[in-house]
Amino acid sequence: MTEIANLAQQGVKEINLLGQNVNAYRGEMDDGEICDFATLLRIVHEIPGIERMRFTTSHPREFTDSIIECYRDLPKLVSHLHLPIQSGSDRVLSAMKRGYTALEYKSIIRKLRAIRPDLCLSSDFIVGFPGETEREFEQTLKLVKDIAFDLSFVFIYSPRPGTPAANLPDDTPHEEKVRRLEALNEVIEAETARINQTMIGTVQRCLVEGISKKTPTSSKPVPPTTASSTLPARPT
Questions:
Q1: Domain membership flag for residue 229
Q2: What region holds the Radical SAM core domain (predicted)?
């Protein structure tokens, strides 16, 4: 908290709380009580000078109702969430040991959008996980269409030494993994384009981060509802 307060005094307006699984945070407060992530968000929200706050990356298994309620109660918490799901198949999610089902993930999103209809949602996906069938891949495609992510990142599975999955047979040909990656990206990009079209003609509040490296005469404002989008804008 001291670091954030010092940054605010230096003119910093936005804080991004980072962690591999940031919403699993647990800390001890001065009175000995446990501070969970929802409590941390509420404390940061009250620091004078901070106008916007966000966090990344979250795990659906730890995304509690108390965190969802922060989107209802904390206006400084921007309308963006990066919440990786990885697959739309429950069997694949179980094999990945993710600890939730596709339905439980969708339930989180429904609760969030009931509170923040303008929530900008992004996610991560892995295609070609060991044993993933065509039907299971199609379940992922359907989930993407059902949820309508603003942005997502797709990765081809490759064994990582030291993980349980590394002992599983990597039985999907590389060419098929590439096909699935391209097919999933096509669906995601179509939805992104559709959502972007709805923004045309609207007025958005942005935060200028710096000078564009590609176009030095332009600034780099970041809309409050996105994680990393940069927009070209000329100073006037």
A1: no
A2: 1-194
